[in-house]
User: What shape does this take?
Amino acid sequence: MGASRSMMAVAGGVVPVEGIRKVAGPIYFYFDFSSPYGYLASRRIEAMAARHGRGVAWRPFLLGVAFQKTGQSPLVEQPLRGAYHERDFARSARLHGIPFRLPEPEMGKFYRAIAAFDRLANDPALQWRRGLRRGDLLIFDNWRVLHGRTAFVGSRRMAGCYLNREDFESRLRLARGEI
Assistant: This one.
């Protein structure tokens, strides 16, 4: 089966446009390795993207937090579905030649630590919030500060500038006459 095609009218004529080429940029891959299906997909996404001339933008996602917020539970913990999915995970791994084992019981400690980190990161008492106005400049060390943005209504323009820490420190020492 060939690539899908669509037609686009241009100046009274018709120009075929290859459908797969319409999408540019990376594939945004949201994953949580606590999901067996997410793990299996993560082992194949790079090759799939390469076949289509795309990159992959990896986006971590905490399923445990989503389960808490929605009242859902992991597939393997759901009555009637759990046993089926345990077999299906292994069957899917074999089909794609991917090594697979369900997480060891110690993984629970890791997921509890991630959940504790999420509670701390989202605790308003531990956050500094400021509404930026036109012309404001915010500078922070991206290696030391966990940061995010809240919802926004309207239009805005944001620009980012990234400095190499070593270059900045070297120029600062030069400006101070230290070197």
The first strand starts at residue 5 and ends at 10. The longest helix spans residues 81-96.
